[in-house]
Write a structure and sequence with these properties.
- By secondary structure, the chain is mainly beta.
- The chain contains no helices and 11 strands.
- Strands 2, 4, 5, 6, 9, 10 and 11 form a 7-stranded mixed sheet that branches. Strands 1-3-8-7 form a 4-stranded antiparallel sheet, with no helix packed on it.
- It is globular and about 40 Å long.
- The termini are far apart.
Length: about 130
Amino acid sequence: QVQLVESGGGLVQAGGSLRLACAASGLPFRIYSMGWFRQAPGKEREFVAGISRSGDRTQYAESVKGRFTISRDNFENTVYLQTSSLKPEDTAVYYCAADIQTNIVAVTTRGAEYDYWGQGTQVTVSS
């Protein structure tokens, strides 16, 4: 059974940081590119960051470039999202997702192409 379990969310003041983690089990982690998405109340889910199977390529939404960093540990089957300089508009439920990939450098930004999703972790940024 495939499981993606996010952790690390919480309440933080504007300008602060959080490190989100997503632990994967039940799948061959190394053949999946990984992504982070978020959904704020009343808004559609949006792509935040993605990382290729090898970890050599990353992609970010314009709104988080320079503030967020995605990384992965293929030995621990975990993907991370280090956030910094958080803003109230970053408030959302953050989800990790796994996309099986034959291309070791591909990163998918479209949520519909991801195969598995976690349950999400809430990030709340107060002003």
